[in-house]
Amino acid sequence: MHRKVIAPSVLAASLLLVIPASAASSVPGAPGIGDSYYPTSGNGGYDVSHYDLRLKYEPKTDLLEGTATLLATATQELSRFNLDFGLKVSEIRVNGAKAKFATSGAHELEVTPTQALEKGKQASVVVKYAGKPSEFKVDGWSAWQRTPDGGVAAQEPDSAVWWFPSNDHPLDKATFDISVNVPDGTQAISNGVLQSQTSKLGWTRYNWRSNKPQATYLATLAVGKFDITTGTTASGLPILNAYSKDLGDNAGAARASVERTGEVAEWLESVFGPYPFNALGGYVPNVPSGFALETQSRPFYSPRQFANGANVSVVVHELAHQWYGDSVSVDNWKDIWINEGFARYSQWLWSEKEGEGTAQELADWTYRTRPADDPFWQVKPGDPGADNQFHGAVYDRGAIAIQALRNEIGDEKFFKILKGWPTEHAYGNAKVGDFVRYAEKVSGKPLAQLFETWLYTPGKPAFAPPSSQSPLARSSKAPAAEPVEPKSWKKIAATNSIHEH
Ligand SMILES: [Zn+2]
């Protein structure tokens, strides 16, 4: 998504204007949470702990009707606060009383309660709304994807404004109950556990629960006609996968990939530690877009990810995000490397395990196939800029950075870090700098220069083979052998449309 980025200094100045030190105790909340790439994402002044969404969706007309109940705690005395939302609102109640509201900007909903919210107290906010998500546009574009039999909300960095009002930034995570009423014969897929399903007068209601903190962009909804498969992991977690009945030639490859979710998650647990959520699965709707996304506990996969046959690598990538991205989320969107660098590196580790090329071989090949004058090397994975947030360099140069770390500190410390980090920041947020400090702490080595080189310095850095391997390589292969393309290379490259739209 391309938005106009306001320089952080301008934003800071405007915040100072609305919150003077001498103001009365009750003031409006800021219209943004303070993200340097997306100044209007999220809002200031409160923290949401739970969303209860009660929705009804008619696939024929794309009409979505909803009642959203948010439980939020004010973090300041609050005379007014913003929600991020795009559909038409008919009524808002705060602590039971009707509130005034107005819209502004691309997706701001300004709510003025009859009584100011007290700092530290929980408030309930009930929003009633209806609209056609495909008709709501930001910069001429809608994240809601219509399908022949329904619609899908799955997009990064945001999709929430198309289907529920929220504090739309990963800094404010909450638990979710998502209940969706759809015509009989149609399914509604969302996050977490399917608690129950009831039919009445030609409509079926699906009740989903995601009981661990979840970022708003990781909430997902897919309505359509699906084939559902279910299972249970060795540790007892429910698995639920959903495949559009209309996947055509990609149906077999999609199932042959996503049905391996439990197996992949079990392997990831051996690398990253215990799986952080209450359910597992994936869904493949009949959408035209080509990307995949790590929607919490139930990733979204475009059928095009399976156009060339089974693709377990994309499943590895999206499931790795459940630890790196979903449980431990970005603090600011500029921290995207702590999501994508590690999700890409997990694909390299899977290749290593499968005997299809080691992470070092993939790093070497990635490094070698990008000449020094390739603009790829100008993108800084540690702060790529909003326009380059999902640039290939964040993934590939970002993953070489991780291999460089592994070579610097050795496998024992390296895998200790990979497993320790998701526990250190479980269900929270982190910055790139937090990772650097954590890696230094666990390894006992100064690493600032390594990360400065790989994450923050434009240009192609030197990339030496691991010191433990180089003497052997020199003695056994003189002159140095030409690297060969790792067997997994093309499969991993085929997942490169991840997160693009
Ligand atoms: Zn990713």
Main attributes of the structure:
2 domains, 4-stranded mixed β-sheet, Aminopeptidase N, binds zinc ion, hydrolase, Immunoglobulin-like, Neutral Protease, domain 2, 27% helix, alpha+beta, 501 residues, 12 helices
Describe this structure in words.
Residues 49-218 form the Aminopeptidase N-like N-terminal domain. There is one protein chain. This protein has 2 domains: 27-224, Immunoglobulin-like (Sandwich); 329-493, Orthogonal Bundle (Neutral Protease, domain 2), CATH 1.10.390. The longest helix is centred in the last third of the chain and has 18 residues, at 337-354. Helices cover 27% and strands 27% of the residues. The protein has helices at residues 8-18, 251-258, 261-272, 312-323, 337-354, 359-368, 392-409, 411-424, 432-443, 448-456, 470-476, 489-493; strands at 27-28, 46-58, 63-74, 78-84, 88-94, 97-98, 100-104, 108-112, 122-131, 144-147, 150-153, 174-183, 187-189, 193-200, 203-214, 221-224, 226-232, 238-244, 280-284, 292-293, 300-301, 328-330, 428-430. The model is unreliable at 1-23 and 470-479 (pLDDT under 50). It has 501 residues and is α+β, with helices and mostly antiparallel strands. It has 12 helices and 23 strands. Helix 7 packs antiparallel against helix 10 (448-456). The protein is globular. The site of zinc ion has 6 residues, from helix 4 and helix 5.
